Amino acid sequence: MVASLLGFGFAHTFGEPSVARAIAFEAAHEHEHEQPHDHAAQADQATPAQDHGDEELVSRETKSGLGLLTGVAVFGTVLGGVFSLVFAFAYGRLGTLHARGASALLALFGFVSVVTGPFLKYLANPLAIGNPETIGPHCTSS
Q1: Which of 22, 12, 118 lies closest to 65, judged by CA?
Q2: 30: closest CA among 55, 47, 14?
Q3: Averaged over 83-111, what is the pLDDT?
Q4: Residue 3 and residue 72: Cα distance in Å, rounded?
Q5: Minimal CA–CA distance to 15: which of 67, 56, 59?
Q6: Which of 4, 26, 86, 108 could form a disulfide with 76 if both were Cys (CB 3.0 to 4.6 A apart)?
């Protein structure tokens, strides 16, 4: 739980400003890629939330504060619990490793399987991203 609080502090300090800039950028350029269909109706709508008939149920401040804290705390606690269960099962079954060595080996295995493996296997940018030929409606309805 303490690590989750530290993770929240880091995410809130260094991650949230980037998210806020991305949201502002998206809001500023939201209507650039829409096809014009009824300019009079679009002019009457004041906010992006009203464009799609959505109403904001949770404010951005709540999402970036209490929501982020809850998500990081729950994830960190669950991850620590799963690690402790795996450690309890594996301790004594990994040869002559003591507790510190066994936990380090399990942490390394967890890091490789959860972070490094998917990072190496899956592309950060799928092949179709950035290809101008893939932009536009390509779906046909029957």
Answers
A1: 12
A2: 47
A3: 91
A4: 9
A5: 67
A6: 4
Contact present, 94 and 105 (Cβ < 8 Å): yes
pTM: 0.61
Count other C-beta atoms under 10 Å from residue 4's C-beta. Answer: 20
Domain regions of the chain by residue span: 2-90
Q: How far apart are CA 8 and CA 80, in angstroms?
A: 15
What is the per-residue pLDDT for 43? Answer: 47
Q: Is 135 left (phi over 0), alpha (psi -120 to 50) or beta?
A: beta
Give the span between the Cα atoms of 42 and 10, in whole angstroms.
Answer: 40
Which tokens sit at 99?
């507790």
Q: Rounded to an integer, what distance in angstroms lies between the CA atom of residue 6 and that of residue 8?
A: 5
